[in-house]
Amino acid sequence: MLSLTQGHLRLLEICPRRYQYTYLEHHTVPTDPAVLERQRWGTEFHRVMQQRDLGLPVDDLLKEDAALEAAVRGLLDAAPDLFTPQGDGFRQSEHRRTLAFNGYTLTAIYDLLVMGPTSGQIVDWKTYQNPPHQAQLAREWQTRLYLYLLVETSHLTPAQVTMTYWFVAPPVAQAASEPPSSITFPYTAAQHRRTEADLQRLTDTLTALLSTETDLPKVDPAKGYCAQCPFAVRCQRWSERFGLEGAMVLPAIADIAEVPL
User: What whole-number distance in Å separates Cα of residue 169 and Cα of residue 129?
Assistant: First the structure.
């Protein structure tokens, strides 16, 4: 069975063709070095938080990056209760949950999951500040899928689970001394039913599209997604990405890196 994560579901709703290129055909695109550096820093932050939760030493990792150390210390100061040892219950970093659903495997990896007899808390670390509006974050598939999976794979009811995002500033933003911030989402039975209905709709649509043995459909360009899509050229959506009546703007010859042969 195909595995569907929150990233898969997001692209399926935005543009089935982009889902095809990214997850079915595994096409890669050049990535901005600045983006790669932010991803590297985010990965290091997650690794430190996981090792700390496992009781492993992290001092050597923090000594190598002053900004990383400041971010971790800031989070510990902002949410001390979250890191207080508990005598009972379940607690695990990088916790993976799966669920067979309508011919697919729904998959989520929680940065931190804390569960008790009558409660469950999902925690997700976001290594950037200026979080999106709460209403927008509530609509994201990460929020919806993570809460849905926890209820479907545990003894807990929707009213007993929550999901909290912690936003921790990366190195550049850390210079502004912005403290970590958080947004917590409760859950309801009505939200659970809506998510299940949307999952049913998306998986039914994907099954029908995959059965045609042709390329999956492209998004309507009027929706504006193509302007930021790395596959705009592959989809012949030059004008949406580059403007100039469809003419692709190439970099100057001097700016193109030499490739040794």
Answer: 5
- The total of other beta-carbon atoms located within 10 Å of residue 4's CB is 25
d(CA 160, CA 180): 25
The continuous run of DSSP H or E covering 185 comes out as strand 181-186
Asked whether residue 256 carries a pLDDT value surpassing 50, the answer given is no
d(CA 1, CA 65): 41
Question: Among positive and negative, which fits the CA dihedral 247, 251, 257, 261?
Answer: positive
Q: What 3-state DSSP class applies to 213?
A: coil
CATH code for the structural domain at 3-217: 3.90.320.10
Pairing of β 119-126 and β 161-167: parallel
Q: What is the mean pLDDT of residues 127-148?
A: 92
**C-alpha span between 170 and 189 (Å, rounded):** 36
Q: Provide CATH 3.90.320.10 ranges for the chain.
A: 3-217
In this prediction the pTM is 0.87
Q: Over the range 51-62, which residues count as b (16 or more CB within 10 Å of their CB) and which as e? A: ebbeeeebeebb
pLDDT at 22 over 60: yes
CB 180 within 8 A of CB 167: yes
State phi, psi for 231 to the nearest 5 degrees: -100, 15
